[in-house]
Every structure is written in structure tokens, then in C-alpha cells.
């Protein structure tokens, strides 16, 4: 067995343990989400570039901060703010997700206009701040701050009835994405207008990378955009990759069968493709500086096929793809240095903002 095949097998072994055992229920065990799904389909479509201006500026947030620790080289604070989502979106979110939490790791004794800051978005199952803080920590010496957003449905924002990362309804996936985008855009606006950072960026791994690509696409000025180990659409993750084995296809079919008898699993999967096509980032506008977009993809990823990354690169001429040797799981564990290098290089391709 060659090394590439070994990485691919590791993804499948990990996937079998996590998704084919009864340790937790599958994704979408409670179905599509009923009327909530129809509402969210309309709200997601509003992100697409038919309207000039892209609803900018976003709603203003004012995080309430407390210091966690402080050293000679850096400071870690945590902040809480009310999600800036509008009333329609807020009413669809579970109450536990109404307040957002962020961790903010900054260098000491450096003016903000001489610093960069990158907002790190959560991948599937990333319930805490720690992994992303470990990724960003070594960047302090490069005068790069790290802001980590806790996603709706995750961590302290997880609904009481949800077990782990397994979202209960398809509508939850769309809701998580739309709310994350709204919150990330408001955080970038805060970093720009309130904190006065000289450069900004957004990154994420896997699902977080999809959201990072959307946020970078919609931002009205050039920012570093860094999707790591991420597809161009959730269709790829749930209909092609390993997560298709973690999806409650029977429950989804049973819900449709209440309205239409004799439906096949293939018809259920086709409906899933249609719904999740709303997450296709190739439909989003090209970022203002595509040269500051760097994808990092794995050569033997069992969750995210390589063609998906190349589709988004093709849609965004000028963007760069960097390949690391490994699968989804092994690259997540072993290639943090490559992720950090991509962050530094992407920020280097931006101009410094003049201090206000």
C-alpha cells in the first residue's frame, strides 16, 4: 500500500468509526426541517450577487470582552455578542445560538494598524476555541492576530437535543451557514471600523472553509481568504464524500414519503443535491483580490475530492491551490505549518490600510 492510499484508508477508517457506529445518531435524523427549510432556502438565495452592495455594512456588534490571560507577547480575550442576524433568521435559530462567542488572540505592544487579523471559522465538529487558537498562536510573532468564532449549533451554542456535531435537520446546516456568514461579516466590520486593523482575512477548515470562501467573496474590500481542506459546495461533502455514510437517508425518505409514495433513495439524494446547491460557492462573486485567495487541499482526501477544489479555483481566476500530502484527517493533524504559511502569504498580497 502506497502512502497516498494509506491516508485515504485512514479517512475511511476514521469515518467508519465516527459515522457508521451507534456512538451518535446520523446527520439529519429528524428530517429536512419542514417549513423552516423553505424559509432558509429563500434567505440563502439572498446572498447571491443579484443586488449591488451585498447588504453592506452589516449590523454593528459590540462584544463584551474579558481577559483570559496576558503575557509579554500576547493577550487572549473572550467576547460575547448578540448575533446580528435579522428577525427571520433569529426566530429560526435555537435559543442557545442567539448569543455568539469569540476568542481573540492579539500581539502585545503593536498598533492595530500595523497588525493583521484573521477570523477562523469552525469545521464540522469543532466545538471549542482551542484547535484554532493553536493554529493561530505561532502567528503572533508575525503580528497576526487570531479571532475564533464559535459556530451556531456548536459548543455552548449547541441545542439541548443535539448530540455532538450531528445536526438534526437539513435546515440546521443552512441555518448554521447563513448565521455564521452574518456573524463573520460583522466581526470583520468591527475589526476594520472599531479596532482599526491594517489587514484582515478569514479562514476555515472543511465546512469552515466553505463559509470562509463565502465571507471572503462577499466582503466589499480585499481580504485574505483561506479555505483549507474544503469543497466548493456542501453537496460534495454529503453526497460524494465519506459523510454520505453519516446521513440519515431513510429518515429523509420517510418524511418525503408522507407526501409522495414510492420515492426512492436516489430521488432523496437528488433532492439533497438540489437543496445543498445553495451552498455552491462558484455561484458567489469573485473576491475583490483573488490573488489573496489560497486554497490548501489534500492529495488523498476521502471527505473532499480534489476536483471540487479545482472547480472553485477555476471560478476565481487568480486564486491559488496548494496541495499537501495526506488525507482529510491526517492533513488536519499534520499540516498546520502549511496552513500558517498560506495565511502569511495571503496577507502579504494585500496592501496595508492607511490608519484613520
What does this entry look like structurally?
- It is a single chain.
- It contains 12 helices and 9 strands.
- The chain is α/β, with parallel strands linked by helices and 356 residues long.
- A 7-stranded mixed sheet has the order 1-2-3-5-4-6-7, with helices on both faces. A two-stranded parallel sheet has the order 8-9.
- α2 packs parallel to α5 (170-193) and α5 packs across α6 (207-218).
- It is globular and about 65 Å long.
- The termini are far apart.
- This is Protein ABHD18.
Question: What can be said about this structure in brief?
Answer:
With 356 residues, the chain is of the alpha/beta class.
CATH fold descriptor: Rossmann fold
Could you tell me how far the N terminus lies from the C terminus, measured between alpha carbons in angstroms?
A: 58 Å
- The secondary structure category is alpha/beta
Number of helices: 12
Rg value: 20 Å
CATH hierarchy: architecture: 3-Layer(aba) Sandwich
Mean pLDDT: 90
Work out the number of β strands: 9
What proportion strand? 15-25%
Order of helices and strands: HHEEHEEHEHEHEHHHEHEHH
Biggest beta sheet attributes: 7 strands, mixed
Q: How many domains would you count in the coordinates?
A: 1
Trace the largest sheet across and list its strands: 1-2-3-5-4-6-7
CATH superfamily caption: Alpha/Beta hydrolase fold, catalytic domain
CATH class: Alpha Beta
Protein name: Protein ABHD18
Organism: Kalanchoe fedtschenkoi
